[in-house]
Design brief:
250 residues; mainly alpha
C-alpha cells in the first residue's frame, strides 16, 4: 500500500497534459464503480445495524463496538506496513473489510438521526450535497491541466492537524465536561474545505497512476481497488462534515 502512495506522488508533472484515452476512461470507471459498490454496501449495513435489534445490540452494546470504531483505522495502519506490494486479492480484502466496518459504524449515526423528526431527511440532504460536491471536484481534478501534486504534503499535514485538534477537543471536554464552544462548526467547515481539495488531488493522482502502470494488469487491479478506497474514505468524511453543518443547532 505504501508503494501505491509513493508512486502516485512521484509522477512527472508533464504527464498531466497527456491525451485522455479509452484505457484511462476504463480505469477511472472501474475505480468509481467499485467506490459506488462500497457506498451501497455501507448504506445497506448501516440500515441493518440501525434497524435490526439483534445486530444493533451485537455491534453497539458489546466489545464489538471497539472493533467497529477503531477497526478501519487499525486496518489502514497495518496495511501501510504489511502490504507494501499488495496482491489484488489482498487489496480487495482490505477494501471490503474497511467498507463493511465503516458501514456498520454509520448505523450509529442513522440511529441517532432517526430519533429526530427530520433526521432521515437531513441524512438524505447531506448525501446529495456530498455527492454533488464530490462529483464536481473529482471531475475538475480529472480534467484540469493544473498539476496538483504539490498539494499532497499540505493536505496530509492538514489531515493530521485535524486529528490533533479533535484530540484536543476531546481532552478539553473530559476535563471541563463540555467541548470547546463552536468547535464542531469550525471543525466541519475546515473538514469540508480540506477533503474537497483532497478529492480533486486524489483524482488527479489516479490519472497519473494510470499512465505509470498502464499495461500491467496486476498493478492496475490493485490501483483500482486502493484508488476506490481512498475516494470512498474521502466521500465518507465529506458526508459526515456536511451532516454536521446541515444539522440544526439547539
Amino acid at each position: 500500500m505504501s508503494d501505491y502512495h509513493s508512486q502516485t506522488q512521484s509522477i512527472p508533472t508533464g504527464r498531466a497534459d497527456m491525451a485522455v484515452d479509452a484505457g484511462l476512461r476504463s480505469f477511472m470507471l472501474g475505480v468509481y464503480n467499485k467506490m459506488a459498490l462500497g457506498l451501497a454496501l455501507s448504506a445497506g449495513l448501516a440500515y441493518a445495524a440501525a434497524t435490526v435489534p439483534v445486530l444493533s445490540n451485537f455491534f453497539f452494546n458489546t466489545p464489538m463496538l471497539y472493533v467497529v470504531m477503531f477497526g478501519p483505522l487499525a486496518l489502514i495502519f497495518i496495511s501501510m506496513f504489511a502490504m507494501r506490494n499488495p496482491s489484488p486479492t489482498g487489496a480487495n480484502l482490505l477494501y471490503w473489510s474497511i467498507v463493511s466496518l465503516i458501514g456498520i459504524g454509520l448505523g450509529a449515526t442513522v440511529m441517532m438521526y432517526a430519533a429526530r423528526p427530520d433526521g432521515m431527511m437531513l441524512i438524505v440532504k447531506a448525501f446529495l450535497v456530498t455527492s454533488a460536491t464530490f462529483g464536481g471536484l473529482s471531475l475538475w481534478g480529472y480534467t484540469t491541466k493544473k498539476d496538483l501534486s504539490g498539494w499532497g504534503t499540505f493536505l496530509i499535514m492538514g489531515v493530521w492537524g485535524m486529528v490533533l485538534a479533535g484530540l484536543v477537543n476531546v481532552g478539553f471536554a473530559m476535563f471541563t465536561g463540555a467541548p470547546i464552544e463552536g468547535f464542531s462548526i469550525i471543525f466541519s467547515v475546515i473538514g469540508v474545505l480540506l477533503f474537497s481539495a483532497i478529492t480533486a488531488w486524489e483524482t488527479q493522482q489516479l490519472k497519473y497512476m494510470y499512465y505509470n502502470i498502464a499495461g500491467d494488469m496486476r498493478a492496475m487491479s490493485v490501483a483500482t481497488t486502493l484508488g476506490a478506497l481512498n475516494l470512498y474514505i474521502t466521500f465518507i468524511n465529506l458526508f459526515r462534515f456536511f451532516l454536521t453543518l446541515l444539522s440544526p443547532r439547539d
